[in-house]
Write a structure and sequence with these properties.
The protein has 186 residues and is α+β, with helices and mostly antiparallel strands. It is built from three helices and nine strands; from the N terminus they run E-E-H-E-E-E-E-E-E-E-H-H. The protein has a four-stranded antiparallel β-sheet with strand order 5-4-7-8, with no helix packed on it. A three-stranded mixed β-sheet has the order 6-3-9, with no helix packed on it. It has a two-stranded antiparallel sheet with strand order 1-2.
């Protein structure tokens, strides 16, 4: 039947094929509306993705990565994977600070990282070997066994009592500026 032909019970305005098209068209419009709502929800924030690299550019797995909001001080933590990568998703738009720590390597940080709506901030944290600083305090007082000639010689009993780790006592004596070998190698 065509739309102009009368039908029992009144005129018909759509062909049977047109009704199916109208149903399909309505379903597509509804699906697009739902998808648009989901898309709008996922586009309220951004993301931060990165890679942690050590000496020689090798991936650092297990590095602790902290993303701190510069405005609120709130932070999120994650760990780099076997490829050294990490990510923070659904990050609210703002300014951030990123701090990366890994055992045996120096800390790395980035300030003023801007995250915008629907954007992904990408960065590479290049960690250098950690520099170790040790301070040793040496007390260099004059050694004396309390004898009359204190200061000129160290007595055998005193040397025998020194913890020497199996080394020859003469090597210990040479640590003191006034000590000299006696000609016998001792």
């Amino acid at each position: 039947m065509c739309p102009s032909e009368p039908r029992a019970g009144g005129p018909q305005f759509w062909h049977e094929g047109d009704v199916r098209f109208r149903g399909l068209f309505s379903a597509v419009v509804v699906a697009m509306g739902i998808a648009a709502g989901c898309w709008a929800q996922s586009e309220t924030g951004g993301a931060v993705w990165g890679r942690v690299a050590g000496p020689g550019g090798r991936a650092v797995s297990g590095a602790q990565v902290q993303l701190e909001n510069a405005t609120t001080g709130e932070h999120s933590d994650t760990t780099s994977d076997a490829q050294g990568t990490f990510h923070f998703d659904e990050v609210m738009p703002d300014e951030y600070r990123v701090l990366v720590r890994a055992r045996g390597l120096s800390d790395w940080e980035a300030d003023n990282l801007t995250v915008g709506v629907g954007t992904t901030a990408r960065l590479t944290a290049r960690l250098a070997p950690q520099t170790l600083h040790h301070t040793m305090l040496v007390d260099a007082r004059r050694v004396s066994d309390g004898g009359a000639d204190a200061g000129s010689e160290m007595g055998q009993a005193w040397l025998d009592a020194l913890p020497n780790n199996g080394q020859h006592y003469a090597n210990v004596a040479r640590l003191f500026g006034a000590a000299a070998p006696d000609g016998n190698g001792d």
